[in-house]
């Protein structure tokens, strides 16, 4: 019912030559893949070249952040219309690295979500608890707070067009992924909240990705969970083989769901 989506978050990696090689390798290696959607999120400086390499093909382009204003005196910032202009379909918002390193607040993330929707980008709203919050039994409280604040004032049809990503902070870049069971529990909780904020129908069609140390060898088990609708992949998206390996596993899970 929900086609899996696998997104590569390249973070602050990829000089132009590397970006070109990675994007063309992924494009060429995934020509015949079905039952899955794929997006690459390179750094800003590589968006234009990756956009050109992906052309009008099935792999989509995404950015890792945007400003909430459409234009203005904001030195160093990039707006949603600029991302749409260079060919982006998706934008990651509220990634924990930005919340932690740049002090991004829930209120700012919410403004970005609304700006992205206003300019026809698909926001991928990221939520997740820290190790300490999990230890204290605050996982659900944390993700609920981030979700409600991030979606404040967004109409149901806007939420319906979004993607959510559950990324436990303790799993990002650590090599320790959440177990499929741990992730599915939080995904189910988030889906319940979306149902409350919109409708049961919308909640059932909304994709919730898992992110945090997804690799080719754990992608199978994660994507087999009915609640997990794909992956947001950091480190493993930086090699053609690693990323393609994950996409193919997600595609297999997608085909099973569809009964192909
Ligand atoms: P990771 O990063 O796959 O390197 O853990 C995931 C993310 O931060 O989106």
Offer a few descriptive terms.
eight-stranded parallel β-barrel; 47% helix; alpha/beta; 260 residues; globular; binds 2-phosphoglycolic acid
Please outline the helices and strands.
Elements: E1 5-9, H1 16-29, E2 37-41, H2 47-54, E3 60-63, H3 80-85, E4 88-93, H4 96-101, H5 106-118, E5 122-127, H6 131-135, H7 139-150, H8 156-160, E6 163-166, H9 180-197, H10 200-205, E7 207-211, H11 216-224, E8 230-233, H12 240-258
Parallel strand pairs: 1-2, 1-8, 2-3, 3-4, 4-5, 5-6, 6-7, 7-8
Helix pairs in contact: 1-2, 1-12, 7-9, 11-12
The chain binds 2-phosphoglycolic acid.
Written account of the structure:
The protein is of the alpha/beta class and 260 residues long. The termini are close together. The protein has twelve helices and eight strands.
């Amino acid at each position: 019912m929900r086609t899996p989506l696998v997104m590569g978050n390249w973070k602050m990696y990829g000089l132009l030559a590397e970006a070109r090689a990675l994007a063309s390798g992924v494009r060429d290696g995934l020509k015949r893949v079905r039952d899955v959607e794929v997006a690459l999120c390179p750094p800003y400086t590589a968006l234009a070249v990756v956009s050109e390499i992906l052309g009008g093909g099935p792999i989509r382009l995404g950015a890792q952040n945007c400003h909430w204003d459409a234009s203005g005196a904001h030195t160093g910032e990039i707006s949603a219309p600029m991302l749409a202009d260079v060919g982006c379909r998706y934008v990651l918002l509220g990634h924990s690295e930005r919340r932690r390193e740049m002090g991004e607040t829930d209120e700012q993330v919410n403004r970005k979500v609304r700006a992205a929707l206003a300019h026809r980008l698909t926001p991928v709203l990221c939520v997740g608890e820290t190790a300490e919050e999990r230890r204290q039994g605050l996982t659900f409280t944390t993700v609920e707070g981030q979700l409600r604040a991030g979606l404040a004032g967004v109409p149901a049809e806007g939420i319906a067009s979004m993607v959510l990503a559950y990324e436990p902070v303790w799993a990002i870049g650590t090599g320790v992924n959440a177990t499929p069971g741990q992730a599915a529990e939080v995904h189910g909780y988030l889906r319940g909240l979306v149902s409350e904020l919109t409708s049961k129908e919308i909640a059932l069609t909304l994709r919730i990705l898992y992110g945090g140390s997804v690799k080719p060898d754990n992608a199978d088990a994660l994507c087999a969970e009915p609640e997990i609708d794909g992956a947001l992949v950091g480190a493993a998206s930086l090699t053609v083989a690693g990323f393609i390996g994950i996409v193919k596993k997600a595609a297999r899970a997608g085909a099973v769901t569809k009964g192909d």
